[in-house]
Amino acid sequence: MATLFPLPSAAGNKKHSAEKPKHTHSARCSYRLITLIGLDILGVLLMLMGLRQQFHHQGFLSEAFNTPYAGVMLLVAGVALTLPFFVWSFKANFRPLGNFNKSNANK
Known about the structure:
This protein has 107 residues and is mainly α.
């Protein structure tokens, strides 16, 4: 059927349109895991910078951020960034294994 629309999807003819493959559950989980690991690494770096700032008083921060509690603020920010990975891994420890439980139920 000839249409005036240049795009096949506008006319409802989807056999020529390139469909994106849908992400599987494991792909979504791996993206989430990579993001959580990245936040965890950034949090650990902030905590190390905060410890150095708090105990060595060698400021690598600019004068505007070089306050007496700058090290504590960096430590708190680092802990806040590491918490999502900690909570996710803690929940994963207590999550039941679906495949393992199903295989034992059949025996």
